[in-house]
Amino acid sequence: MRNCSRARAWFGAYWDDEITQAEREWLEAHFAACPKCRSEYDVLARTLESVATLPRIEAAPDFTERTLARVRRATPAADRLALPRPAWQPVAVAASLLVIAGTLLAPFAGRLAQGPIAHRMAPPEARLVATPAPGSLAAREPAPAVAPSRAPQSQEQVAALVDSLIDHGEDVDFVLDPVRVGHERTASRRLEPAQGRQAVISF
Amino acid sequence: MGPDREPPAPTIVSLSDEDLMARVAEEDERAFSELVRRYQTRVMNLISRVLNDREASDDLAQEVFVRVFVHRRNYRRGSKLSTWVFTIAANLAKNEIRRRVRRRNWFSLDALQESLNDSTSVLADPTEGRERTLEREQVQQEIGRAIATIPEKYRLSLVLRDVEGLAYEDIAQVLGIPGGTVRSRINRARSMLKRKLQPMVRRDDRA
Known about the structure:
The complex is a heterodimer.
Chain A: H1 2-9, H2 11-16, H3 21-33, H4 35-52, H5 63-81, H6 88-112, H7 117-120, H8 123-126, H9 137-140, H10 155-166, E1 173-175, H11 178-184, E2 200-202
Antiparallel strand pairs in A: 1-2
Chain B: H1 17-25, H2 29-51, H3 54-70, H4 81-103, H5 109-124, H6 132-148, H7 152-163, H8 168-175, H9 179-206
Helix pairs in contact in B: 1-2, 2-3, 2-4, 2-7, 3-4, 4-8, 5-6, 5-9, 6-9, 7-9, 8-9
């Protein structure tokens, strides 16, 4: 019985051929004397043989191509993770709040000021956030306060302002996604965080 | 006498794994493609045998290579590329098993054992005239399912050793465990598998 336990402890090593010559001789002598252990080993050996002879599961013929395509898609995503995403969030949120606030305050704005629409819509004043040229000195300055320099003077004027954002098909570019910008302008990775110029809302 | 010519650059397919990986680190797409070609069957086979789910294995095998590429600079020259790739594959397979267990989106071991017993009884009484190929395929399916019933930590060791034929020391590296633990896990896994497949093996003896 004790010999049987010892023999069974060596089954794996015997199968792997990682057993000393002395152990092998002892085990084979035991097999000759103990049909039960021999039978047990035989079942184990047949089991492992059947596992070893399982057919290889081949990859599909287009596996390499699909994998390459997936790697191409995944690689930019890995780069995205490196971008200082949190630095964008306050600016983006502030810009969104200003747009919402402007829309809500529009009915009251007409009481505060008056003047020709054309004057109010002059480009420099109409910009919510200035967009300096990349690399220019201005680009390193903090963005100006996000507010028109003069409030629209009537509800109609404000409506026209909002309307120009939506209906005239002009270049309304809400750059709220640092990922896209990061890929278009690799230099953006080196930008210091929380610079207002990254949150561009231009029209 | 003509000028000395430089020896022709070795073709991608003749590069060693290490040199291939060095090119992959430089984002050489052809080198990466060759790496995928070299390892796709082994990775696919490993994952399929661990999960016993071919469809999921295709997706997971792709993910292995995505990670190989994404982490290409983490590969240490001088270490075995196969071990590194298998480490990624084993980790993904392990995660997938755990995910399935967590979500209970996988058949229970009891149900699997039941299906195994049912199938074994079918195999024990083969219908006359059944095609030999079909029978062999069924046996292979049974073995695959039996492997899938072994607890994860034993299963991975078993597949790496008895399906992929890795050396014990390589398995220890892939799984990040001592060699002695690898041996004891493999022994236990083999005993479990033997118990599960015993009816089938004995039936074959009688046939």
